[in-house]
């Protein structure tokens, strides 16, 4: 019986002018996997995530959702994004909306839920991330860690099949990183399929079911965290980890 992949990336390459950022990337995502993508700055991690979410258009190759290519047709992209959500390092909350309004906007406009249903779903997920007491606050009144937890709740309100995280803790003060990582650990335990670009090596080692190491636009290694962190096969992975884990 063939495996069913939610997302498949086939021979995906991306160039900005003459600069090749991604080079023939191949990997697939099964339901319930928590995949952490690690690597040095400039290795292509965030560009790969943005191609998966259709914020960037690949130069060549394919992104498939349940075996079907995601075409760059706005209606199809919107439908796909309602199932493949994204949490950004810069939060991307609507500053003119309250926490509650931020969490209800997508479900009302895209999923066409009633106000009552959208409200109930927003409260449920704000409670899940510990932000229910702040429903009437505006983003300017929140700390970075609180904004990121609201951004996660907003993404969860869409009931996504896959949630992408682009360095979700990189813009946070060190004391706030733990709160956001704890929320993500809890989400992993619920069985949510997640692809996470992160520089938090301890988190990747402890929470991911698969860890991908990227180097210069390639996937240099793709393995279980137990193997990749304790016995990496690729010399570049070894060098990166020795530098990172030592720091």
Report on this structure.
This protein has 247 residues and is α/β, with parallel strands linked by helices. It has one domain (5-246). Helix content is 40%, strand content 26%. The chain has nine helices and ten strands. The chain has a six-stranded mixed sheet with strand order 6-7-8-3-9-10, sandwiched between helices. It has a four-stranded antiparallel sheet with strand order 2-1-4-5, with helices on one face. A hairpin with a 2-residue loop joins strand 9 (210-215) and strand 10. The protein is globular. The model has no long low-confidence stretch (mean pLDDT 93).
Jot down its keywords.
4-stranded antiparallel β-sheet; globular; alpha/beta; 6-stranded mixed β-sheet; 26% strand; 247 residues
Quick summary of this structure?
The protein is of the alpha/beta class and 247 residues long. It has nine helices and ten strands.
What ranges have pLDDT less than 50 throughout 5 or more consecutive residues?
none
What oligomerization state is this entry in?
single chain
Q: Could you say which overall geometry the principal axes of the C-alpha atoms support? A: globular
**Biggest sheet strand line-up:** 6-7-8-3-9-10
Please report the number of helical segments.
Answer: 9
> What profile does the largest beta sheet have?
6 strands, mixed
The total of beta strands comes to 10
Give the fraction of residues assigned to helices: 25-40%
H and E string = EEEHEEHEHHHEHEHEEHH
Q: What is the percentage of strand-forming residues?
A: 25-35%
Structural class: alpha/beta
- What separation lies between the terminal Cα atoms? 44 Å
Number of domains: 1
Radius of gyration: 18 Å
What average pLDDT do the residues reach? 93
């Amino acid at each position: 019986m063939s495996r069913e992949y939610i997302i498949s990336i086939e021979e995906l390459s991306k160039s900005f002018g003459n600069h090749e950022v991604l080079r023939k990337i191949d990997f697939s995502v099964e339901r319930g996997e928590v995949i952490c993508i690690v690597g040095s700055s400039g290795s292509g991690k965030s560009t790969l995530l943005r191609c998966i979410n259709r914020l960037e258009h690949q130069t060549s190759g394919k992104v498939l959702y349940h075996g079907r290519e995601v075409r760059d047709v706005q209606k199809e992209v919107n439908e796909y994004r309602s199932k493949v959500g994204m949490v950004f390092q810069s939060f991307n909350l609507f500053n003119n909306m309250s926490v509650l309004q931020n969490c209800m906007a997508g479900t009302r406009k895209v999923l066409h839920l009633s106000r009552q249903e959208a409200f109930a779903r927003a409260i449920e997920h704000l409670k899940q991330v510990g932000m229910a007491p702040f429903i009437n606050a505006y983003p300017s009144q929140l700390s970075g860690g609180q904004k990121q937890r609201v951004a996660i709740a907003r993404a969860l309100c869409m009931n996504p099949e896959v949630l992408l995280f682009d360095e979700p803790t990189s813009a946070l003060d060190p004391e706030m990183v733990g709160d956001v990582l704890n929320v993500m650990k809890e989400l992993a335990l619920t069985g949510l399929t997640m692809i996470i670009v992160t520089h938090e090596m301890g988190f990747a080692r402890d929470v991911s079911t698969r860890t991908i190491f990227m180097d210069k636009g390639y996937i240099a290694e793709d393995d279980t965290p137990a193997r990749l962190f304790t016995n990496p096969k690729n010399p570049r992975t070894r060098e990166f980890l020795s530098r990172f884990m030592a720091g």
